[in-house]
UniProtKB/TrEMBL annotation:
Protein's name according to its UniProt entry: CMP deaminase
Metal-binding among keywords: yes
Catalytic site: 95 (proton donor)
Keyword annotations from UniProtKB, A to Z: Hydrolase, Metal-binding, Zinc
The CMP/dCMP-type deaminase domain, residue ranges: 12-161
Similarity comment: Belongs to the cytidine and deoxycytidylate deaminase family.
Species of the source: Paenibacillus nanensis
Protein residues bound to Zn(2+): 93, 119, 122
Amino acid sequence: MTAVTNDAIRKDWDTYFMDIAYMVSTRSRCPRRHVGAVLVQGKKLLGTAYNGAPMGAHDCLEAGCMIAEEVEVKSVDGKDQVVRKQRCIRTIHAEQNLLLFTDRADREGSVVYVTDQPCWTCANMLANSGVQEIVYHRAYPKDSEKVYALMAQQGIAFRQVEHYAPPAQALMDVTQ
């Protein structure tokens, strides 16, 4: 008698942890972007977080988004260009919440799976957190170039999962 296994349908580790990050993101009440993050040491899940207003504070669905505009000067082909970026500042990002609610000792040498490429602020915080790798799914072009450069400088593996489809119940259209 031949044993039947489920190895052909068994998810790889990147898919497994990214699925969890997406399911965590469903807790977000941000109308612009649901983001989830998980902290993994080895193959052990150590923490989860999502983006949202501070505990007890009104969130974007209750009080509306708090949009702030930032201006950045970028050099393109030797010419300075002004780039305007809009960000909601009411919410704490998923990566920030993950760092707030996990221990430094657990983060040393760990991997963060996050639904979206970290913004510049989150990338800076993650670069100083002890993690050795960041795996994301959706690109965040506003900060991509400088985030990639920072991760390379810090020696942190930084990669996008390819050929990945989030769980259907966690899908949302995102606002850039």
